[in-house]
Amino acid sequence: MVAIQGMRGTGEFNSDFRPKNYRELFTLLEPNGNAPLNALLAMGSSEATDDPEYKNFRDELPERVLNVDGAIGSATSTTITLAAGDDNKYAIAGAVVVNSQTGEVMHVTQDTTGTTLEVVRNIGGTTHQISDKSELFIAGFAAQEGGNSPTAISFDATVAHNYTQIFRTAFAVTNTMQSTYLRTGDKLDESMTKALKLHMSDIERAMFFGQKFEENGLTNQPTRYTGGLLNELSSVVDLGTDYADYGGDAAGAMTEEGFDSLLISSVFKFGSKQKIAFVGENVANHLQQYGKDRWTPESVQGAYGVNLTRYNTFAGDLMVHLHPQFRQIPMMKDAMVIVDFPYLTYRYLESRDTHLLENRQSPDADSTKHEYLTECGLELLQDKVHCYIKGWTARNNP
């Protein structure tokens, strides 16, 4: 049995599992079907909300890197101009600052809240000059013997929010049809099964492509849209324009070394050391060719009901799944969406998770009508732990 970090389930569904709603029933019937993201969330992180707008706080440790704005020709100048940025506030009096380019060690003499950094230069070393756009980083604190305590630094978390969206999928047959013998089986049962698949497909697509918005929010009947991964993530790599950063010689191309660099510098920089990548068919082929050259693709059967393939790297383990719906959406054939599941939650409005609502037909209708209804949304507990790679149309050799 293969474990995935952050998941609370212990394996694929078994005969002891009793679904509480039709979303879980769907994952029981088709865990590797057209909604694998929902299948994993169903056995992982799900949480009720008592309000259609839900919020969470995001916090992270700062990098504490200061960017120089303008070269300093004099190696003895004690005033450095910085580009504006919140990380400048960490350069308080007594902080030790190091130039990442030259290795020069400096000691901050005044609290820096704006763009002016006052320092003592060249601590214990030789003289250096500082070039434009050099990066300085905080490297500890050096206190004077008998001195006062330093300036306090506090952190404010950022607030993120999203909405639950109401998904409805109806199906109906006439009562005449109900009473007619068909060699293909019961038409209502067939419609019920297909409607559930379409319903879960709608939710799956919204969780990837949805745009967060509240329409007519001040009225008594607003329409809310949940924000999906592609519109909520800030970590986006567009190989249509950024290909040169990853070894590509034309738009859409990336080398194996470039992909390795991306994993090390960005994908596994934050969060878990094991993540799931939903990919389109072209990206799956790129990874398969890389695997032939160096990695050993390992099929992971039945991991939480979804078949995955593990790619081992020094940065972390990438669990890859060829998303069936990405085949149906042209732009997603060349895409990879990397998800860190401990930082992703399925949110549903209390008592409004997926249910079958029966007999929705009009009182005088000579027909039978049912519908599936779900009010749910996606919650990103953190943002930078996920990544979206798009426009990966070609594979370059190094």
What does this 3D model show about the protein?
This protein is an alpha+beta fold. Helix content is 18%, strand content 31%. The N terminus is likely disordered.
Q: Could you write a compact summary of the structure shown?
A:
The chain has seven helices and 24 strands.
Keyword list:
398 residues, alpha+beta, M1 Pyruvate Kinase, Domain 3, seven-stranded mixed sheet, six-stranded antiparallel sheet, 7 helices, 24 strands, 18% helix, disordered N terminus
Element layout with pairings:
Layout lengths: L21 H8 L6 H7 L3 E4 L3 E6 L6 E3 L11 E3 L13 E5 L5 E4 L7 E5 L14 E7 L16 E6 L1 E10 H4 L8 H23 L3 E3 L7 E3 L3 H4 L3 E3 L14 E3 H12 L6 E6 L1 H13 L4 E6 L2 E7 L4 E6 L13 E4 L4 E6 L5 E3 L9 E14 L6 E4 L3 E3 L2
Parallel strand pairs: 1-20, 13-23, 14-24, 15-18
Antiparallel strand pairs: 2-9, 3-8, 4-7, 5-6, 5-8, 6-7, 10-22, 11-12, 15-19, 16-17, 17-18, 19-23, 20-22, 21-22
Helix pairs in contact: 1-2
**Record field, number of beta strands:** 24
Give the tally of structural domains.
Answer: 2
**Between the first and last Cα atoms, what is the distance in angstroms?**
36 Å
Helix content: 10-25%
Spatial order of strands in the largest sheet: 13-23-19-15-18-17-16
Class from helix and strand fractions: alpha+beta
General form: elongated
Provide a count of the helices.
7
Proportion of beta-strand residues: 25-35%
What is the averaged pLDDT score? 85
- Unreliable segments of 5+ consecutive residues: 1-18
Rounded to the nearest angstrom, the radius of gyration is 27 Å
Q: Sketch the major β-sheet.
A: 7 strands, mixed
